[in-house]
Structure formats: structure tokens, C-alpha cells
Write a structure and sequence with these properties.
The chain has four domains: about 190 residues, no CATH class; about 150 residues, Rossmann fold (3-Layer(aba) Sandwich), CATH 3.40.50; about 100 residues, no CATH class; about 260 residues, paralog of FGE (formylglycine-generating enzyme), CATH 3.90.1580. About 40% of the residues lie in helices and about 15% in strands. The protein has a six-stranded antiparallel sheet with strand order 14-15-16-19-25-20. Strands 6-5-9-10-11 form a five-stranded parallel sheet. The protein has a four-stranded mixed sheet with strand order 23-22-21-24. β7 and β8 form a beta hairpin. α1 packs antiparallel against α4, α23 runs antiparallel to α26 and α24 packs antiparallel against α25. It starts with a helix and ends in a 9-residue tail after the last strand. It comes from Pannus brasiliensis CCIBt3594. One of its GO terms (molecular function) is formylglycine-generating oxidase activity. InterPro entries: CTDL_fold, Sulfatase_Mod_Factor_Kinase, SUMF_dom, SUMF_sf. This is SUMF1/EgtB/PvdO family nonheme iron enzyme.
């Protein structure tokens, strides 16, 4: 005969229930203990079913599968019992004839021989095989009778069980190595310590000197002999105390719930129940809370005085505040638990000094009235708790308080963003504020992601600072364990980080979600949003292409909900996508389309309702993305020797000027700050005082304007704004040579014509923008100005790096060739921003008026000039030329001249500010 419960277990696994062998043994242990303490429960099939579904069923779908399989099993067992009864009757009849025992003596014997429910009990209990992995001392003597084969000559009253067949049928699976972000290694108690604690605490059967009646063996022996001879006894099995976990699933515990999952992985055989904030009349069977059972029923499952219980809850510490009602309810239920269980431990995930001023400290003080109850702190007392649960003595302790924030005050939540940020730092420390600042980068936060950032960034905040951040007024919960910050809060915190820090976090975020992007579950959209967030700061052009693809799909499918979400996401990412104003503008139009707002569709022109989708798609396709420039720059020592090479990458766009004409290559210069001017050893008073300047991102021509690019605009009289431009101002020829012999006024007219042609904001660079772009340094130090090298190449120049009067030495470099004329652009290595010829070739006009010093100069990167800029007599130039000594080619050197003068080595390059970049018509 097959084993019904084991067959039932196998059937559930085949139906798709994710059951482990530990869950099978857990049920059999419950059943045996239940029968031993209350023999009448053998007949309670409903209770047996309830125990099985409590341990094995975790969802409504699984419940449906369970019910179907259970009905099939009951029907199968009933048929088997009928067959056994028939066999027993045959045995009794034959034995009666052979022994000539009077019939009236056999009748009471038959009642003992085959009690139907006892046979059912035999079927259930026999399924507790001898598994040496969990119970090395266990010797189960109960067995099923081989009643279906009575003719066999078996000397023993019952056959041997072959436990190894059962043990190897379902081998416990060793958990595969989890990724770092899923291993919860940030808790003070790790997996190894949990495993060790379970080895010392787990329930193991131990031998007993006492004996008890073996009802099953007695019935079988009587059936074989045909009469009752004597009772058969067996050694009584005793067990160490069972462990039960009660876990708080309330909202304040969500950031701390990861330890509960880690605990569950380590202590798989331990039954877990859940409650909300305070233990009540019902406990949940899983952390989702969809199924519950009465607390009284749960308590009845476990033998009185033979079970230890552990509660995992913050006891109100995470959110702070005091609740008399919570204390009274908790005290009432703790009395109930301690009256049933041998010992009850409360494991608090937050440190004991923070219990003070909260309900937790009064709950902890209940140990004075409840001697078998104690509260322990996870960070310092886990091993102490395990020792106490084993019944061993532990030394006394003294709790010391610390200041705890009162987050229940309504005024606390009405403060401005700046004030709330400040309060977080004052209440929990700068370390926690630093964690919150880094956590502002992802658009969505989970406890695991915040822990991951804390570890990878080597932040000093304690592990429980994750709860302080996620439960603070800076963050609100979306669903489950997903949190987010409001946009205003997020942008405020991100301003505290420099570009390098943001890019570091973006790369970490990419790594974190890379392996999960292909998962198809409820958080798929959340992970995709995180991926786009990271990409927007690292590779904005790629992010724009992916957003365009998603928008295209949503428009084609007429998925208006998706369109609204994409528009909202693009707006949130706009600080990182400022180079793509047309995309921002487009998503506003797309959102209006999704909402049915006709007024918001005016940018599409006069189109019919049926043509709206096509018009949107056409407009989307016209949005251009930046291209990527790659090269290499070099750095030299004072001898002119190359000591380092570094790769250069830069984003750029091309501005077409006409068919067959090389377009303008406009390199994106990232926002940043630097110390403008020269140090003391470079003794030029007009380059002082050094001052910190913050520069917004802008676009600068990769090269000076070439002669062919000059002619393309200068020859267009239809673009004329203020004055005539000579298409051929330069004496030398060569389309790829920089234009020269142009005045400051000529350069201004050229920029104005470009604006008229393109609709963008082209102009001359300010002195600050030019020097920042030349040095290619993004400074992080705001005090004690560092020393910068005089050239972007390093300590000196050589004739192989720039076109200048190389026959004059600046430091210890060898003399080079003096070319005495311009060279084609891009003849030498670029700087770290991807710009060519920032030293030498031609002087470059800047927009600024001349000032003898930097006293009073702007610190925002703007040009230093008066309103009537054209009337000023002296203008600034930068960079030196082919005619210049190396000292005049330094990054900090300031040239000057009259705006109308024509010189054979004066040229210019243009910049484009992002305001007005990529007009919506494109």
C-alpha cells in the first residue's frame, strides 16, 4: 500500500506547489505530537487537513490545488481501508477455524484488531522516516502493517521501514549563492551566525527510559495470532522544545523585514506566523496577510510548555512615540503566550538605547512580571537570546537611553524641504543624512537598494539608518517595499552632490538592476524606470533613444496610460536631459494627446482627429540625439615628455551649414566649477585674484571657425543682421584652416546669422567659459585653490602638441619648429573635453569687455560686459596663436585689443547655450 500523506505531498509538488522536504517533516511532527497529547484527535480529519494547509499553502491558487488533491486522497484512502477490512476479516475467519476458538470470544477481539481510525493513524505516522540530516538519533518504531500480504512468514510483528528511500526521494536543496544585493549581508547577524544558532536550538528527538503502549504493533500481532496475547510496548520519544516565530508585518517594519526573510532561509523548519503591529485574535499564515487563523487555534498546535516563541518587531521604535493602548494590548497577549510557551523572546531590530521614550521600553519592562519573557536587541544580543531560549542562565544587563526624535508631531511634516532635511540630520546624524542624499538619485527606493548603496559607497551610517530614511518625512511609500521621494525633495538633495558622485551612483544603479531587467513581474516597470534614470546621467543620448522607442510603441498602440507615465518620467529626468528640450516639449504634447486636451496639441498644427497619431510619430522622429566623439589626449612633464595618455569621450551634435560644407561640430561642455586665474608663481596681475566660478553646461565649437564654414554664412546676405561680412577675409587659402583677420564685430555678426539660420542661441564664449573649456577640469575643492598646470597638456608645450612659436622654450622642453602660419584644425591632440587648438594657431575673440583684474568679476560663468556691449573700446582674446611665445598660450593668459582691429592671427570659435537648444520645430 502506498503512503497516503507522502503521496499527497508528491502530488502537490507535481501540481506546482514549491514544497521542500522540511515542510513535509514539519507536518508529520505536528501530527505525531497532536496524537500523543490528544488521542481523540486521530479521528479529526478536518484538523489534519488544516495543519497540512497551514504549512503547505501560501496563496489562493495553491489552496484550490490543495483542496482538489485532498479530496482525491481521501477517496483513495477510503478504498484502501475497505480492502484492508476485507483482508482482516479473512484472517480472522481462517484463524478461528484453525484454533477452534468459540465465535463469541472473537467479537471483542475484532474491535481491537481493526479500528479504522487507528489504521488511518498508522498511515499518517509511518511517513515520519528516519532522516539523519535533521534527526540523527531518531529511530521511529511505528510502521505500517503489510496486511495486504498476510501469507508472508514474518517473525517480527511489523516490517522494517526503508527510510533511505524516502530520504533520497526528495533531497533538501542547497540554496544557490545569491547575488550580493539579495544576501542581506548588511545585518548585524548574518547567515552563518543564524545557521550556527539553529544547530544549537533546533528540536532534536532524544531517547527516553520510559515506555508507552504501541497500539499499532499490538493490533497487528493480535491479527496474526488470532487472539490477544499481550500488549507490545515501545520506547517513548521525547523532543526538545519546538521553536515558533511571530513576525510583525506592519508598515514600520517593512524597511526591516529583510532580516525576517534571511531568518526564514536559515531556519526553514521553523513555522512562521505574522501579525500587524500588535498580536491580536488572528495571526496570518504568510507575510501577504491574505490568510489567517485564530491565535487560539495556532497555540493548540504546539504542546504546552514544550515550545519557545520568538517575536520579531520594533515595538514602535521605528516611528517613535508612545501608545498606552498598544502597551496594554501587547501585555495582554504576552501573558497569553507566556502562559502557553516555555519562553517568549522579543527580538527588536533597533538598538536598545532607542527604546527609551517609546512604547518599547515599557514592553521590555514587562519581564519583571513575566519571568519567561525578555526583549533583546538584534545588533548586540542575538546570541544572548539563543542562550536564554535554550534554558541557560544569562547575566543581567543595564539599558542606557539616548535622545529619540518625536516624529509624531504634525508640525514636523509641515516644514519646508530644506527644514525637513536639516531635521533628519539633527535627529539621526550626518551619516544618515548622507545616506538619504545618495538615496535621492534612484526614482524609486527599496530597503535592499538603499542597503546596496550604503555598502558600495562605503557610507558610515548604521544598517538601521535605512529605516530612519524610509520612514522619514522625506520619503513616502508607494506600495509593498517600494518608496519614493517627491521631485522637489529629490532635486534639493541631489544638489548636494557633484557630477562625479552622481555618475558613481548611476553606475551602481545600473549594476544593481542589470540582471533583473528581463524579469516579467509587477516591478518590471519600476526596474525599467531605474535603468533609464541611470542611463540619463551616464549616456543621455542612449536614454533619449530608448525613451523615443517607448514613446513610439505607446503612440502606435494608442496606450494613453503608458504615454502619461512616460511623459511624467521624462519630465522627472529633465535635469539630466537638458540637452534634449525638444523631447521634453514633445512629451508635453503627447501627454495632452493622452488626456484628450486639444489645446495642448496646437504645436502639431491643424490636423484631424484621425491624423493625430501620425503627426505625433512624425514629430517624434525629428528629435535628434547627440553623437559620441572618442579620441585620446596626452599629458607632458616640464621636459615635454609624454607621461600619461587618457581616452577622451564627448557628446556632440552637428550643425549643418549647407551641402558639401563641413558642419559645425559642437562639443557638449559639462557643467562644473573651477578656479579661474593663475597662481602666484605665474606673475600676471590681470589674471588675479583667483576665484571660484561655477559654469553651466554649454556647447562649444570643437575647432575655431574654418574658412569654408565662414564663407557658408558670410556669403548669405539673406541672413544679414547688422553688417556686411567679407566671405574671403583671410590672405592664405585652405578650407580647413581657421578663418583669420576677422574683427570682434565680424564674429558677432556671424553668430547672429547662425541664430537666424538655426533658431539656436549661438554667441561668442565668455572668458570664464573659454578658460573652463580649455583647462577641462571639473573642480571639487571649494577651499584652498589647487595649483593647475599652465596648459591643458601639462607643464609645458611642444611643437608636436600645438602651433605656436615653438623655437622659444617655456620650461625644459626641447625647442621645436616655428611654422609662422596657421595649420589645419585638428592637427594636434584634443584636450580632455574633446576640443582642438585651445593653445596656439589663432587668437580667439571672447564676448567680455576688458578689465585690468578679476576684482568684481562674475562667478557664474557669464560674460563681464556692460549692456551696450558694442560700444566698449577693448575686448578680450584667449589662447595665443602661431605667432605667440608659449607664455601667451597659457590657459589663464588674457589678450586684449580693439573690437574693430584686423589682425592676421585673430579668429574665433562659437558656443551655443542650452537655452533655446534644439527648437521644438525640429
Amino acid at each position: 500500500m502506498e503512503l497516503p500523506l507522502l503521496d499527497f505531498f508528491y502530488q502537490l509538488r507535481e501540481e506546482g506547489l514549491p514544497l521542500s522536504i522540511e515542510q513535509y517533516y514539519r507536518v508529520t511532527e505536528y501530527l505525531i505530537r497532536l496524537f500523543d497529547t490528544n488521542p481523540e484527535s486521530i479521528a479529526d480529519i478536518a484538523k489534519i487537513k488544516r495543519i497540512c494547509q497551514t504549512v503547505w499553502v501560501k496563496s489562493p491558487h495553491q489552496q484550490q490545488l490543495f483542496d482538489t488533491a485532498w479530496e482525491e486522497m481521501i477517496a483513495r484512502v477510503s478504498r484502501e481501508i475497505d480492502r484492508i477490512e476485507s483482508i482482516l476479516e479473512t484472517i480472522v475467519t481462517e484463524d478461528s477455524i484453525d484454533s477452534e476458538v468459540p465465535q463469541e470470544i472473537e467479537q471483542p477481539r475484532l474491535d481491537i484488531e481493526r479500528p479504522q481510525l487507528d489504521i488511518e493513524r498508522t498511515q499518517l505516522e509511518i511517513e515520519r522516516p528516519q532522516l539523519e540530516i535533521e534527526r540523527p538519533q531518531l529511530e521511529i518504531e511505528r510502521s505500517r502493517p503489510e496486511i495486504e500480504r498476510p501469507q508472508l512468514d514474518i517473525e517480527r510483528p511489523r516490517p522494517e521501514i526503508e527510510p533511505l528511500q524516502i530520504a533520497t526521494a526528495i533531497q533538501p536543496k542547497t540554496p544557490s549563492r545569491l547575488k550580493q544585493k539579495d544576501r542581506y549581508e548588511y545585518y548585524p547577524v548574518g547567515r552563518n551566525e543564524l545557521d550556527e544558532s539553529w544547530q544549537g536550538l533546533r528540536p532534536l528527538p532524544i531517547a527516553s527510559p520510559y515506555r508507552e503502549l504501541d497500539v499499532v504493533a499490538t493490533v497487528i500481532a493480535t491479527a496474526k495470532r488470532g487472539f490477544f496475547d499481550r500488549p507490545i510496548y515501545r520506547p517513548r520519544q521525547q523532543h526538545r522544545r519546538t521553536v515558533v516565530l511571530l513576525i510583525d508585518r506592519s508598515e514600520s517594519m517593512i524597511p526591516l523585514a529583510g532580516f525576517g526573510r534571511l531568518w526564514g532561509e536559515a531556519w526553514k523548519a521553523v513555522p512562521r506566523y505574522y501579525f500587524d503591529n500588535v498580536i491580536g485574535e488572528q495571526v496570518y499564515l504568510n507575510d501577504s496577510g491574505w490568510q489567517s487563523i485564530p491565535l487560539a487555534e495556532m497555540l493548540d498546535i504546539y504542546p504546552a510548555g514544550e515550545t519557545v516563541c520568538i517575536l520579531y518587531s520594533d515595538a514602535g521604535v521605528a516611528r517613535g512615540g508612545y501608545s498606552r493602548e498598544r502597551l496594554e494590548e501587547t501585555e495582554r497577549e504576552l501573558k497569553r503566550l507566556t502562559g502557553r510557551f516555555y519562553r517568549v523572546a522579543w527580538l527588536n531590530p533597533l538598538p536598545s538605547p532607542r527604546w527609551f521614550g517609546n512604547t518599547a521600553i515599557d514592553i521590555a519592562d514587562l519581564d519583571a512580571d513575566l519571568p519567561n519573557f525578555t526583549m533583546f536587541a538584534l545588533d548586540t544580543e542575538f546570541s544572548r537570546m539563543v542562550t536564554w531560549l535554550k534554558g541557560e542562565a544569562i547575566p543581567p544587563r543595564t539599558l542606557k537611553p539616548e535622545s529619540v526624535p518625536d516624529t509624531e508631531d504634525e508640525a514636523y511634516y509641515s516644514l519646508s524641504v530644506a527644514s525637513r532635511v536639516k531635521v533628519l540630520g539633527l535627529d539621526y546624524g550626518q551619516e544618515t543624512l548622507d545616506l538619504a542624499t545618495r538615496g535621492a538619485f534612484p526614482l524609486g527606493l527599496t530597503p535592499e537598494l538603499l542597503h546596496y548603496l550604503r555598502i558600495q559607497l562605503k557610507l558610515t551610517a548604521p544598517w538601521y539608518a535605512i529605516a530612519d530614511v524610509l520612514l522619514s518625512s522625506l520619503v513616502h511609500r508607494v506600495e509593498g517595499d517600494l518608496y519614493e521621494m517627491e521631485r522637489e525633495t529629490r532635486e534639493y538633495l541631489l544638489k548636494r552632490l557633484d557630477r562625479q558622485e552622481i555618475e558613481t551612483i548611476a553606475r551602481l544603479l545600473q549594476d544593481y538592476i542589470q540582471d533583473e531587467l528581463d524579469k516579467n513581474d509587477s516591478q518590471q516597470n519600476y526596474r525599467q524606470t531605474q535603468a533609464w534614470t541611470a542611463l540619463a546621467y551616464l549616456e543621455p543620448s542612449e536614454a533619449v533613444e530608448e525613451l523615443k522607442k517607448a514613446l513610439r510603441e505607446a503612440i502606435t498602440a494608442n496606450n494613453r496610460i503608458r504615454l502619461v507615465r512616460l511623459a511624467s518620467l521624462t519630465d522627472t529626468l529633465s535635469p539630466a536631459l537638458t540637452d534634449y528640450e525638444p523631447l521634453i516639449t514633445f512629451t508635453e504634447v503627447a501627454s495632452a494627446y493622452a488626456r484628450g486636451d486639444r489645446e495642448g496639441l496646437l504645436d502639431l498644427g491643424k490636423v484631424s482627429q484621425g491624423e493625430l497619431q501620425k503627426a505625433l510619430l512624425d514629430k517624434l522622429e525629428k528629435i535628434r540625439t547627440l553623437k559620441r566623439f572618442t579620441s585620446e589626449t596626452v599629458y607632458v612633464n616640464e621636459k615635454g615628455e609624454i607621461v600619461k595618455r587618457e581616452p577622451v569621450t564627448a557628446d556632440y551634435y552637428e550643425e549643418p551649414l549647407g551641402k558639401g560644407i563641413e558642419p559645425l561640430t559642437m562639443i557638449r561642455i559639462p557643467a562644473g566649477q573651477f578656479w579661474m586665474g593663475s597662481p602666484e608663481e605665474e606673475d600676471y596681475s590681470n589674471e588675479k585674484p583667483r576665484h571660484l566660478v561655477k559654469v553651466n553646461a554649454f556647447y562649444m565649437g570643437q575647432t575655431a571657425i574654418t574658412q569654408v564654414q565662414w564663407r557658408a554664412i558670410a556669403s548669405r546676405e539673406d541672413l544679414r543682421v547688422s553688417q556686411y561680412l567679407n566671405p574671403y577675409p583671410s590672405q592664405s587659402t585652405g578650407d580647413n584652416q581657421p578663418v583669420k583677420q576677422v574683427t570682434w564685430y565680424d564674429a558677432i555678426e556671424y553668430c547672429a546669422r547662425l541664430c537666424k539660420l538655426t533658431g539656436k542661441n549661438y554667441r561668442l564664449p565668455s572668458e570664464a567659459e573659454w578658460e573652463y573649456a580649455c583647462r577641462a577640469i571639473q573642480e571639487t575643492r571649494v577651499k584652498n585653490p589647487p595649483k593647475y598646470p599652465p596648459f591643458h597638456y601639462g607643464e609645458t608645450l611642444t611643437g608636436e602638441l600645438a602651433n605656436y612659436r615653438a623655437s622659444i622654450r617655456y620650461r625644459k622642453e626641447l625647442k621645436g619648429e616655428y611654422r609662422a602660419k596657421t595649420t589645419p584644425v585638428r592637427s594636434f591632440p584634443p584636450n580632455a573635453f574633446g576640443l582642438y587648438d585651445m593653445h596656439g594657431n589663432v587668437w580667439e575673440w571672447c564676448e567680455d569687455d576688458w578689465h585690468d583684474t578679476y576684482r568684481g568679476a562674475p562667478d557664474d560663468g557669464s560674460a563681464w560686459s556692460k549692456n551696450d556691449n558694442r560700444s566698449q573700446k577693448i575686448k578680450c582674446l584667449r589662447g595665443g596663436s602661431w605667432h605667440s611665445d608659449p607664455v601667451y598660450c597659457r590657459s589663464a593668459y588674457r589678450g586684449r585689443n580693439h573690437p574693430g582691429i584686423v589682425v592676421s592671427y585673430f579668429g574665433f570659435r562659437v558656443v551655443c547655450s542650452r537655452s533655446g537648444f534644439f527648437p521644438s520645430s525640429l
